[in-house]
Amino acid sequence: MTKYTDHLGRPVVAVTGIGVVTSLGVGKQENWAALTSGRSGIHPITRFPVDLLNTRIAGTVDFLGSSNQGATALTYELAETAAAEAIGQSGLAGAFDGPLFLASPPVELSWHSRFAMYGQSDEQEGYARLLATASKQNGDVFDSVMFGAVADRLADRFGATGLPITLSTACASGATAIQLGVEAIRRGESDRALSIGADGSATAEALIRFSLLSALSTQNDVPEKASKPFSKDRDGFVLAEGSAALVLESLESALARGAKVLGVLAGCGERADDFHRTRSKPDGSPAIAAVRAALADSGLGEDRIDYINAHGTSTPENDKMEHMSLSTVFGERMRRLPISSNKSMIGHTLSAAGAIEAAFSLMTMLEGVIPPTINYDNPDPAIELDVVPNAKRQADVSAVLSNSFGFGGQNTCLVMAREPV
């Protein structure tokens, strides 16, 4: 007899559809083939001039039609493409008939568009035209800079119910969108939810801002080697774009309509870190608490986790903090527990990262293959981890922990299982 509720009496939340777009390609199969072969999607930036910039590489998605139409347009196309794949796999026809949760970057009018608008008339009229972007007097521009505009369009496109939710919790955003979908189903508000993380904001402004924070790698000469999580010579993350979508359903609803269950979202944990705007608390206590909260929520002990999909940004401080936090939770087992970072190949997709890594975590269980951490040629002796170096590994994985630790102290961890816990 199938058990439809978890250890706390809540509906078991199943995944019935997965969609992915990254710099490695469109669709989960193309991405998975590249990821497990250790191929990098990092390349020189061609979208805007980089001559005077310290960082000139990124994981931009340049092969979609909207790649040169601004962050809002690209974020929408990324989200729409991933969602269409996920819904198609789920077998749901017609209107989606469930809530939509979108992790999206804060949007703003690009400087190119601002200057173009300003230059269309004299100084006084140009200034007035810029002010009009904050009102409905200029409908197209207004829509392009409204934070909820992308989610509104997605809700109309797929027939989501209720008010679509747009959220931004920095690098944890994608995982937070999944958590909100899980909670909506657990509360009995809906039988299904569509959770999406999308980010097409690898703009010149974003590159400069992260550079000023000394957060980006400056190893431009061989772009595909720049992201090197847990290596001694890591020097920062690589800015990237992408999207992932999950169709979440109560297990009872999914089985009742004959859907194939791809995995289970067993646990979610989050904790805030109030230490610093960008740095993590030195003792790692918020990250430790987030991991433990996710495990407790799932009903699984530390010994049940077979693989960890790391946050693994390739920044000197984050990788050290993540190692310390996981070693505190898992103890000596952390020396032999496989952990790898997809960011070594796709870069840091910011608002989309948590969703993309959750999608890859589910595929790890489905395919029985752990993607590698590439560029691991100079191990950091202070970080003793089995990072699945440079080559994929066959493994029987029944439960995964996926970590997302964001700027601003927003930490979200997800536990996924192959079967209901």
TrEMBL record:
Q: Which GO terms describe its biological process?
A: fatty acid biosynthetic process
Pathway assigned in UniProt:
Lipid metabolism; fatty acid biosynthesis
One GO MF annotation is:
3-oxoacyl-[acyl-carrier-protein] synthase activity
Annotated Gene Ontology cellular components are:
cytosol
> Per its UniProt record, what Pfam families does this chain match?
ketoacyl-synt (PF00109), Ketoacyl-synt_C (PF02801)
Q: Which UniProt keywords apply?
A: Transferase
Q: Supply the InterPro entries for this chain.
A: Beta-ketoacyl_synthase (IPR000794), Ketoacyl_synth_AS (IPR018201), Ketoacyl_synth_C (IPR014031), Ketoacyl_synth_N (IPR014030), PKS_Beta-ketoAc_synthase_dom (IPR020841), Thiolase-like (IPR016039)
Q: Give the Gene3D superfamilies listed for this entry.
A: 3.40.47.10
Pinpoint the Ketosynthase family 3 (KS3) domain residues.
Answer: 10-418
Please report which protein family the annotation says this sequence is part of. Belongs to the thiolase-like superfamily. Beta-ketoacyl-ACP synthases family.
State what protein this is by name: Beta-ketoacyl-ACP synthase II
This chain's source organism reads: Kumtagia ephedrae
Lineage from the top down? Bacteria, Pseudomonadati, Pseudomonadota, Alphaproteobacteria, Hyphomicrobiales
